[in-house]
Model the fold of this input.
Amino acid sequence: MNKHSSTRLALRGDLIDFTAPPALEDPHSAGVRVRPDHWLLIEDQRIVAVQAEAPGPEWPQEDHRGRWILPGFIDTHVHSAQIDVIGAWGTQLLDWLNTHTFPAEARMADEAHAQALSALFLDSLFSHGTTSAMVFPTVHKHSVDALFAAAQARQMRLITGKVLMDRHAPDFLRDDVAQAERDCTELITRWHGQGRLAYAVTPRFAPTSTDAQLAMAGALMAAHPGLYMQTHVAENRDEVRWVAELFPEARSYLDVYQRFGLLGPGAMLAHGIWLDDEDRALLRSSGAALAFCPSSNLFLGSGLFDWAAAQAAGTAVSMASDVGGGTSLSLLRTLADGYKVQAMAGRHVSAWALLHAATLGAATALGLAHEIGALEPGLMADVVVWDKAITPLEARRQAVAQDVHDAVFAWMTQGDDRHVVETWVAGGLRYRRPSLAEPQLRA
Ligand SMILES: [Zn+2]
Done:
């Protein structure tokens, strides 16, 4: 690009990101990098420098002193069509799918609805501080086209693929093996590797695919190296029992996916609550990762994820909203729920471990640490500016914070999408919060 037509921007604020995984429960652990009152220099979509000194007048400046600047969050498991069923009352997983989710997903059969909903969904991710996502659309091919096209228009990192379901779902949401294979192949050709987009082979979960369809999914993975895979595993006890009945030859629920060639680097499995040590060892040896979805797990009463066991086994863990099972697109609120779920097991996860799992940890699990997840020169400028406090109570709490971990942890447990000031994606402003009703408070 011509030097004079380049777009430049310098953001000033308190920078937080990670250089390595912090210990799970130690607030003083290495790995976190806090750079108070620094400048983040962005040019032509990328971060080009991070420095304490103010840049020269050739850099347009935005002064966010007193605010956090973090890498955009990465939501590793979320369902676009389910924004219509957030906060739906009264069911556990299998009933919830039939009662709330499948009817909402059926509406995606309408192409105009799929396009409008995809745009709203991605813009809502931005307004909640999330800049990258691994997304389930629906079984409809055009739901994938709509989502990829909307992401491309926004220059965001997005991983998605057609949901595969050829049994145990209503007629209007079932595909078949041959048609699904044609659709997937066409979508892979059209979208995989285009800019920041990547395709994920997406069997909904083992119960809704026949052996033949899971075999087809595994064959796609083998035929197209570099594809991602996303699905659900061991979320709910009734589901685990059902999978054992449907696949009596498999050692475990996770083993079903292994038998069909679906585990490997780039495989993201949501939940993983009801796993055993052999499963965790298999996750590590295959390079597959888990998406911890605490908001969803609490809301649907699914169970309490054992993060320490996953970490002990060397399994990568990232954070995910799992909307609409989860009740908010805000990963900040999801992190607060994650802390509480671990507290139920007597563990006290640090703000650093939680934030790492929503940024660099997720990027690493997806093989994308060269592109997203940190505030590092060379990476794409996916950056979110956050208010530390927006109410007098929060400002008071920040003012009396004992150290930076105390301040960040309090912010993480109190904060939500109202704390997002600006969201930048590939160096472009994608969201700016409307002015708050009250005069803005800074810590
Ligand atoms: Zn899910």
Summary: Residues 77, 79, 232, 270, 322, 325 surround zinc ion (CB under 6 Å).
